[in-house]
Design a protein that fits this description.
Mean pLDDT: 93
Strand order of the largest sheet: 2-1-3-10-4
Low-confidence stretches: 1-19
Shape: globular
Number of helices: 15
């Protein structure tokens, strides 16, 4: 009851009307490979949006998931913006909650060389494909293989390989196909170094926080999610600027980052704060459960992640109610570093 009263009271506070002493929060995000999460992380790091929402924030960019996971488990960050598979993996062994999603991070795809005779996944029978096992690239790759009527390991060899290594191996002809995500899908298509065999904009994001942080700083959690709404709208209205930031850390042209990001509703459709969607839905919950089942079946985790028990929507619903009353102008955002 106390938590409910607190969250309801937060809904009526206007932006900037927080406690005089700013709450501390440490946020981790992927600053290199991932779309949407990457742009939003750069915005939180380089603007005053968090500060204006009553937060004394440290925003830390990580090149990939393992060190970000280690930081969360060690208590060195409080909140991380990651993928659906990342959440399933860590939630099975660490006390944390899914508190929001910023939507699709673009396409996941199986790609082959331009000169490959394969026209569909079925044509990969007897061939070799690589994926990054245990990540968001693993589950869809195997599902596409099964949907094509093939058996992984029997009809087609599935190897673990980092995305950059898989890309190099495909170029050399050492493998026949590999699994990759945007913006690298768009990058390879433009360069004609590979073509898409099958794809889907199913690379979904998760925003999670440690149970310890949520217990200590429930107000800060709502403030953060309010700031997340504002950061998303800033992204939607300042695409060129923000994509330029991400381009510097992932070495992909801004126009390709823009192309891959168009699959995200917030990026392509949000015009005002009320348009922003960050409340997780049943589609995401079902995907998380499917990934967990897949991980157990493939000995990637010992027990099934209790997905539904690891979701707490009270914070994002409180933030959503608050932003309905806010008057936020992206032009008021101060860029602290470029």
């Amino acid at each position: 009851m106390k938590k409910l009263i607190l969250l309801l009271s937060l809904c009526i506070l206007p932006s900037g009307a927080m406690a005089a002493e700013k709450a501390k929060i440490r946020i981790g995000y992927p600053n290199a490979g991932a779309l949407i999460n990457g742009q939003i992380g750069h915005i939180l790091e380089k603007t005053d949006i968090l500060e204006k929402n009553g937060l004394d924030a440290e925003v830390i960019g990580f090149p990939y998931w393992p060190p970000m996971q280690e930081a969360l488990v060690a208590g060195n960050v409080d909140v991380v913006i990651a993928s659906e598979a990342n959440f399933v993996n860590i939630a099975s062994k660490f006390p944390c909650k899914l508190i929001a999603t910023v939507g699709s991070a673009g396409r996941m795809a199986i790609m082959v060389r331009e000169d490959s005779p394969a026209k569909s996944v079925k044509d990969l029978k007897g061939k070799t494909i690589t994926t990054v096992i245990g990540t968001s690239a693993h589950y869809p790759a195997v599902k596409w293989i099964l949907d094509a009527g093939l058996t992984p390991g029997t009809d087609i060899k599935v190897l673990h390989m980092a995305a950059s290594e898989g890309r190099a191996a495909l170029a050399k002809g050492d493998i026949d196909a590999f699994t990759i995500w945007d913006p690298f899908v768009a990058d390879m298509v433009q360069k004609k170094s590979a073509r898409v065999l099958v794809s889907k904009a199913s690379f979904l994001t998760t925003t999670m926080a440690s149970d310890d942080f949520l217990k200590r700083e429930p107000e800060a959690a709502v403030n953060f999610l309010t700031a997340l709404h504002e950061a998303i709208l800033f992204m939607a209205k300042n695409k060129e600027l923000v994509n330029g930031w991400l381009s510097k850390t992932n070495s992909v042209a801004p126009e390709l980052i823009d192309k891959g990001s168009q699959y995200n509703y917030n990026y392509s459709k949000a015009k005002k704060l009320k348009d922003v969607r960050i409340v997780p839905d049943e589609e995401l919950f079902t995907l998380l459960e499917s990934i967990s089942d897949f991980n157990v079946q493939n000995n990637l985790q010992p027990v099934r992640t209790p997905v539904r028990e690891k979701i707490d929507l009270s914070y994002v619903k409180a933030a959503k109610a608050r932003v309905q009353k806010l008057k936020f102008d992206t032009a008021s955002v101060v860029v602290k570093q470029k």
